[in-house]
Design brief:
By secondary structure, this protein is of the alpha+beta class. It has helices at residues 31-34, 36-48, 95-113, 120-123, 129-138, 140-151; strands at residues 7-11, 14-21, 53-66, 72-74, 85-92. The protein folds into two domains: 7-114, no CATH class; 116-152, no CATH class. The protein is 41% helix and 25% strand. Strands 1, 2, 3, 4 and 5 form a five-stranded mixed sheet that branches.
């Protein structure tokens, strides 16, 4: 696995993990799945710094500000920024979230193992527009096989 932590910092014996989101906004129901990225970073930092405590992980929703009611509003639609605060979405780091991430990774690996390595249609989902970014950008298999399949 490979990941890039946007920011982490330590104050005393506590570590804080921040991931900057420059344009995306997601609903509360999507938060558990989206937060898995942060939990993965926190687990790595916990292993790297075993004497430190991970208090929380957070998304910094850079495009937005938060009003007094907690509603996220795009920065470019706000006249007086002094009436708003930064849109930071904090997630308390827990053992339960750690276990959820472990279960998710194990389940995903098991699903991958069930696929036929030689069946390109299992790997190159060119009909699914939502996953094309991930395939083209992150998948090492794409350049070797999927680009040939998509061009034929």
């Amino acid at each position: 696995m490979r990941g890039y932590i946007d920011l982490y910092y330590m104050i005393g014996n506590k570590i804080y993990v921040i991931d900057y989101k420059s344009s995306s906004k997601f609903s509360k129901k999507d938060l558990p799945k989206k937060s898995m990225q942060l939990i993965l970073y926190a687990m790595y930092l916990k292993e790297k710094y075993p004497d430190k405590i991970i208090e929380y992980v957070a998304f910094d929703m850079c495009k937005y500000m938060k009003n007094a009611n907690g509603t996220l509003i795009e920065r470019n639609k706000i006249n007086d920024l002094n009436e708003y605060e930064r849109a930071i979405v904090k997630i308390k780091y827990t053992k339960r979230l750690e276990q959820q991430l472990i279960d998710f990774v194990v389940d995903t690996v098991n699903q991958i193992k069930q696929l036929d390595f030689n069946d390109k249609s299992d790997w190159c989902k060119n009909d699914d527009k939502s996953n094309q970014f991930f395939c083209k950008t992150l998948c090492s298999h794409y350049k070797a096989a999927c680009s040939r399949l998509n061009n034929s």
